[in-house]
Design goal:
142 residues, alpha+beta, two-stranded antiparallel ribbon, globular
Length: 142
């Protein structure tokens, strides 16, 4: 949908319009465009992924690749050792720990039909991405 304003054509952004994403309109840029920031809404399991040191995240990815769920299970214990997660403020350390254990069990139980194995690899990749953001000091949005 477009709107004419002073001869320039600008796109309208309706928040809550996209599926699972939140759009935030920013400042108008040269040429009449609008800067839009899109953030993915994370589910409880995805937001519970801990931010670990990079070498440990790579080990968890390696384990998740060859033994689905094992790296996720080990990452659950990093939460008890002080690793940061987006959900700790809402659910507490024990709640985030149990969410990671549940994610590991889902990966293990559904690995037989390949869903858990693929989920496990993606989980490990998210751990590495979060760890690289942590090391670079960037905001942690996966």
């Amino acid at each position: 949908m477009a709107q004419k304003e002073g001869g320039a054509e600008q796109g309208l952004v309706k928040s809550g319009d996209s599926l699972g994403a939140k759009a935030v309109a920013g400042a108008t840029v040269a040429g009449g465009g609008v800067v839009v920031e899109v953030r993915e809404k994370k589910g409880s399991l995805r937001a519970a992924i801990p931010t670990m040191p990079f070498p440990l995240a790579v080990i968890c990815l390696f384990l998740n690749t060859f033994i689905p769920g094992l790296g996720t299970f080990i990452s659950a214990f990093t939460v008890l050792c002080g690793a940061h997660s987006d959900l700790i403020s809402e659910r507490g350390v024990c709640g985030v720990f149990w969410l990671n254990v549940i994610a590991a069990l889902i990966q293990i139980l559904t690995a037989v039909i390949m869903v858990g194995w693929i989920m496990s690899i993606f989980w490990g990749m998210d751990m590495v991405i979060l760890a690289s953001y942590r090391d670079q000091g960037l905001p942690q949005d996966v």
